[in-house]
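Checklist before submission:
- one chain only
- standard amino acids only
- sequence pasted in full

Submission:
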Amino acid sequence: MFDHTITALAGLALIAVACQWLAWRLRLPVILLLLAAGILAGPFSGVLQPDALFGDLLPPLLSLAVAIVLFEGSLSFRLNDLTGLGGTVFRLVSLGALLNGLIIAAAAHLLLGLPWLLAALFGAIALVSGNSELLPLLRRARPGARLGTLLRQEAALLAPLATLIAVLLHAWLMAGDQRDPLLAFASALLAGGALGIAGAYLLALLLRNHLLPPHLVNITTLALVVGNYTLASVLEQEAGLLTVIVMGMALANMKDLPLREHVDFKESLSATLLSLLFLVVAARLEPAQLALPSGEIMLLLGVTLLAARPLAVLLATIGSPLNWRERLLAGWLAPRGIMATAAAALLTAQLLDEQLTAAVPLLPLVLLLVLGSLLLQHLTAYPLGRLLGVAEAAPRGMLIVGAHGLARAIARALHAQGVRVVLADTDWEDVHQARMDGLATYLGHPVSEQADRSLDLIGIGHLLAMSHRPLLNALACQRYSSEFGGNQVYSLLTAEEKRATGKSAIGRHYAATRLFGGELTLTQLTGMLSRGGQIATLTPGQAAQHARHIPLFILDEHGAVQVVTGSSAAPREGEHLIALLPAAEEPLPLRVDSAVTSAVPA
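Returned file contents:
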C-alpha cells in the first residue's frame, strides 16, 4: 500500500522550492511567502497537518531546525566589523534596545493583560531584526552608505543578543513555582555559556589545524551544533538554544578563522530547514488564531512598529554623527523575520507543553509583527527615504568579483575618490589582504544564496567581473544584470577566453561589456602593474602629459563614474581620469578602440 506520508513530504518540498523561487523573482522576503503558503495549506484548507504527518518526531525536529537557524544567525555577531560608528551602534544595542523592549513590554502588559515576564519575553523577541531581512530592504530603500552600515551593524549585534535575552527570560518563565527563578536563570546561563564556548573552541581547533577534509567541514559543524544543543538540553532544558547562540557568537569573533569559507549551510541544509520550519509553523496555527486581530492587538502592533523603535532610536542617537533625517529613517527600518519567528515558535511550544496557557497569544503576535513589519517597511522605506532626502537617487558604487592584486589596486583608487567598492572572492588570502588595505570585502561565492542574503550592496550599482575564471565572470554578469541593469555589468577579458574557440568559447549572449578596451586581458594588466606600473588619478592636464596611459575610469564634477570600455578617453575640465600608468620601459599593447560608458551619479 502506498504511504501517503511520502506524498505529503514531496508536496512540502515542492511548496518550499516554489516559495524560494517566487521570492527571488519578486524580490520579496521568502518568509512572507512561506508563512502565507503554510497558512493556506494548514489551517485554511486542512491539507497539511504537521502533527499527524510527523507525530512524536515533530517537536524534536522543530527544535533542531530552530537550533541550526539560530546558530547561523548568531554568526553575524562580529565585533570586529564595527567601524567609526561603533559608539552609535553600541548605544543602539544597549540604551536603544532597552528603551524599545521596555516600551513594547509595557504595552503588551497594559493592552493585553499579559504577565510582566511574558510581556518582557515578547518585548525581547520583538527586538530581533536580522540582516537576512534588512539587506533586501536596504537595497530597496537606498539610505546611503553611512546609515546602511549603521543599520547592518546594529542588526548583526542585536539579533543574537536579543534572542539570548529571550532564551534567559524563557528559562525564568519555565521555572515557575517549582524552582527558584534566579537559580534556573543562572543554571541555564552557566550550562549554555560553557558548552557554547567549548564547542566553538573545539570547532576552531579542528579548522585551524586542518584536521578535517573540506567535504567533512559542514557535516562536522552540524554534528557539533546538534550535539551541543542536545547535551545542554539534557543538563538544563532551557540551555540548548543559549548554547548554539553563544557558540555562533564566539566563533564569529575568533581571529584568523575564515569562518564563512568553511561553515556555510545556506546553499543546502539551512535553506531547506528554513523553508520547512516556517511552512510547518504556519500550518500548525489554529483557525481561531487567524481571526481578525482585536483592537488591543492592533494597538500593540502599532505601538511596536510606529512608536517604540522610532522613539528609542531618536533618544539613543542624540549626539551621534547622524542628522535628524537619518535618525528618523533608522527608527523606521527594523524588519523582523527569520530569527524572531524561529525563537517564538520553539519557546511558545515549550511554554504550552508546561501548560502555561497565557503563552497562547505569543506566536500569533510575533507572526503578525513579522508580516506587518516586512510589508509596511518594504512599501514605505524608499518613499520615506526620498521624502526625508536620505535615499540615494542611484547608486554609483562598484562590486568587483575578484580580490587579486589588480582588483585591489583599482578598488583603492576608486575608494580614494569616495566611490564605495566591495571586493568578492573565495580566496582567503586575497580577501584578507584587501581587508588589510581597508577595503570592504565579501568572502564567499558572489553568485550564491548566501551572497543574496549577506552581500552588502548598499550604494552599489555596477559590477566589474575581474576574476581569473571566465565562467564565474559570465555567471556573475548574468546574475547581477537583473540587479543593476544589463548596461551596468562589465567583464575583463582573460587569457583563457582570448584563446578559446568553438566549444570552449563562452556564448556571445552571456558576454557583458568588456572593460578597458576589450582586447586587454587580466594577465596583461596584472603584468604591467607588477613590473612597476601604477594606478593614478589624473587631472586633464596630467593626463595630457602622460601620453602612455591606459584609461580605466573617468570621474566627472558631479560624482558620476564613467567606466572606460575603449582604449582612449580624454577627461574634460573638472573631471579626473583614473588610469594605469605603465613603467617607462613597458611597451603598450595594440588595442581596438571602443567607448566610454557612463555610470549614473549618486
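Reviewer check: The first strand starts at residue 397 and ends at 401.
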